[in-house]
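pinned: reference chain
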Amino acid sequence: MGAGDSKLSFKKGVFRLAEDSDIPASDPYWLSFWELPESADDVFTLFSAADIRRTRDNHLENFETLILAVTSRLFALRNHAAFPDSEAAPERDALNCIRILTRLIPFIYESEQLESWENKFFWGARRRRAHRTAMNGATEVLFDEANPDAVENAEAAYEDAPPLMEELVDCLIDLLFYQGFTLPPATSVGKSKMTYAIWQSGVGCNTPVGTTREGENNKIEILRLLLALTSKAMFMPASVLPVKGVKVLTYIVTCPDKRAVLSVLCSLLNTTLKYNPASWRVPYDHVVFTDPRQVLVTYSIQLLLVLLLYPVPERPGPILKNNYRHYLGRLHRTQDFQFCVDGMTRILNQPIQATTSYLPGSQKSLKWAPEMMMLFWEALQCNKRFRSFIIDTDRVHDFVILIMYYALEYRLDLSKSGVVRMCVFVLQTLSTEPKFGKSLNKRFEGQNSLPASVRISSFSGSYADYLIISIYTLITTSKGKLSAVYPALLAIVANIAPHVQNLSSAASTKLIQLYSSMAAPTFLLANETNYSLLQSLLESMNAIIEHQYSTNPNFVYAVLRQHKRFEALRNFTLEQGQEEVDREKRLRKDRGDSIEDSPKVSFSMSEMQRPRRVPETPTTPTSPGAFEIGDDSDEEDDESNSAKKSEETPTSPITPSTTTSRPDSASESAEDAVPLQLRGMSEKARGKLPEGAFQRQGSTTSLTSHVSGAATPTAGSGFVPTHAWIESWLPHLPLHTILTVIQQLLPELRSVITPPPDSAPQDTLPLLERLRKSELRGIEPTPIKTHMFEWSTLALGWYESLLWGFIFVSERNVSKGAGTVGVWNGTAVRLFRVQETAPEGPSLLAPRGGVDAIGSNLIERLGNVTLGAARRDSMQTRADSTQESRRESQRESTDSGTGNGGRHVVV
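pinned: its structure tokens
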């Protein structure tokens, strides 16, 4: 039978599946599903979403029989002594069974009406045919519970079996390590072909097991099905996912077989980190051909992260743990850490190299750099030895630069907002280590070699200077899009502040400019909780003075030069503040700036750098007018709430309530979708934390008692400040340390700090030396606080949605060369919102001309072909199904980006 005939026959079988009722289990018709398709493209093209939904909704009995048939055939092949053998146990049959399941599973998950059926069908008790009976015929149609009356002595022929999904997962894990299928053929006869051999050298393995092109392709098919099986998370709301969990993932990550867990973990980890995109690269090679290993690496890192990130839901009975996270946290060998760091930096560096190449477009950027950043974050949270390694070896400096690159590069891209937030949270996780803050005092020498987006002109200073200036840039140039992570950015500054030394004049000035912006009435009076950001920044400035006064004369000098701003805040009143707000509005109106009623308040770098009116008296509050009204979505507004709610420290008048167990999602609001940021904790208290304090499980905190989020009004009509509200926080601002410095040092240095207008410029070096040697009285260092990164239930939902968004986007473009088939295209995902963007125009590498149109038309016609030999009474049904298939195909084409060049953005 030719290729065209087999495709037509397969399509005919698909039509019959949705038209006939209760097709007998013994019908040879079922053989066509694993004998006719020749590739994954055949299955996904000819078995359309409309066909699947019609069968699922109208003939569920056929749907069940199909799943039972292909799973039983797959189990039989796995247990066949000759597998893979082209005659007795063909490899083709196993691959087609895997492809059929990959195609069907997402459409089962998307139907809420089938949830009870799904639990019973996949997780209920069942009986299966005994192996000796099942292996009597190689081509016999085998599936569980099929036609038991036809079997003589049924009690003897059937045996108890584990739930279908458990057996399917076990079978797929075994096939990942099956000699002759995914591993090289066995050299000795008689031994088991299933061997837990790690795929690549690296962690846990020094000698590679070897690989073939066919073996890698088979691994891709299996990994794709495992991702489809675990993608139940895509069809659950983010608020429900961490509480309810995914049964398949719970079964996989709690597997008690240590050897199986370590083999999967090390194989996926090594395959991901061993990949070197530059090992065979020549300029513009991606135009001519694609690297087939990229598909395997992509699926490997995605499945690895799905397993590592999954929080096992709390259940009555013994506490279950995620064994993949557990064993990642047990790594301790220096060579393993070196291997991990080298692999991570190589992948994270590649997009930078591609964009800074002397030949534009000569290198294609890897798409899984955000996933690698996520893997780095997981390693930081799971393994304290890994954290110590990268800090002690100064490799952490490389990661600081890389993190800031992605944060600054994507800060204005709505589709990458999750990546930017993750970068900020990774930095906060690093900053909780005291050694990290101390390591930043090393001088930064290679700044001129950085990409333009992260390069600071005329920079000369330490890594601490670079980080502070970059955080300032991130805040002031993001146009309010990152207000949800302002507390986290300030937490980073607060965590490193007690340890930084010799801050440069530029970094000190940026901190003072941030203070000036946050102390402005236009910001403080914008909503009920903005003062908390100011409080956090003041605590950071106090920590620098209290713990590193003698080593930071530039910062002290910057404080003294702006002493009027601090004195004005001490004497701040509501009337003066409102007068200043009105003045700013008039100035903005005169300049022609738009003023919109919006809950967002964002920094504007241009306004921060504009000269300001200096107050005539210390009692007059000064306002730099450094904020502008933004206009962001309500969804970002909610995330801003949760980010701000955790900002209270022990000096705040608001005391958060903490629970020791994961709160029920019903008690939390959508505001909790971003993790807690600024929970102050002394270093002594932090030292008493258990080793697993960075683990997500058991460390979630309820945010229901916190105040509303940063830069968000208390009501839709806007916030109205009152005298009582001012008095609730103004007296508690930590101004004592800074005002004491001003009081003691300003009188004797006033002539130098504020010289007469007509005097010649003076050298500041003697002044800095005097500041360095000056002694302060009446200032006692406060205990160092560490603002830990904590998790809430909905924060875990946000994190999971970020990962599954990466997976969805990477799979959406159907491309034979790229190895993607569009597993979830056309499905109704609920974990995140998919927004279609404007189509991309044609380019040299993607002309999108007549050839593309002809190819798309041929695929559509073949996918929706009708057969003349059909029964007369089914002609109308087929015509209707053809029309529905065509509409579904058009929708899928749009979803995948192959129809009109459109893209999808996961929001």
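why pinned: The chain has a mean pLDDT of 78. DSSP finds 40 helices and eight strands in the chain.
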